[in-house]
């Protein structure tokens, strides 16, 4: 499955391209040095210590060495075109959000910010087929992988936090997919624009050939933070700094949240992982 992408003969399935992550040990989480780097980076960009005062990065997994079996993970976040096949085949609600619900989330972005991402008549916005799908809740992402499993007769699921982190940063515990120094030219963040999602694969791939693991969109994982909340990883096109774009960074979001900054990628072929 790794390195392959295919369309089923019935036209109602686009199998995501997959990358194989070799079995082995890797460094997960962050230490004091990495977190301090992230705080100082944010302070330099924003000119204030908001993330430090709110201790955003103190909740990260303490750095430790962990073994994972081999697994396959999608090379990119799931795209609008891939998700559209699921919507067509099942009648699952297309990505959108009503103003009243959006306002209830209490987010920084006003409802007008959702307009470019809302689907019409069950179809993605024009010209965005190869952009990561957003405005999908954790439950929506779970429904998608359950559908993939039924359609293919194989096991699909969301990644664990450890799987996601190893796939994006590699085995050596580097701060970003490319190394330890933040470079705004290597990811889609608000540091260099375009202040929107972009087609996948526009930036250099990470250690295992994954694209868009830093910036672009946050991604749902299986990891539970508390009842009704899951960890998202990766940062987004709306973030600056970008301490939050490090693979070790983690934030919890309500499972029912549909956000213009959150998408997901998938794992194939394994039922249980640490």
Task: Describe it.
The chain is of the alpha+beta class and 274 residues long. Helices cover 22% and strands 17% of the residues. It contains six helices and twelve strands. It has helices at residues 32-46, 50-53, 80-90, 99-104, 138-152, 161-169, and strands spanning 6-7, 14-15, 18-21, 24-28, 64-68, 71-74, 156-157, 218-226, 229-233, 251-254, 262-263, 267-268. The strands form four sheets. A four-stranded antiparallel β-sheet has the order 3-6-12-7. It has a four-stranded mixed β-sheet with strand order 10-9-8-11. β1 (6-7) and β2 (14-15) form a beta hairpin. The radius of gyration is 18 Å and the shape is globular. The two termini are 22 Å apart. Residues 4-9 have low confidence and may be disordered.
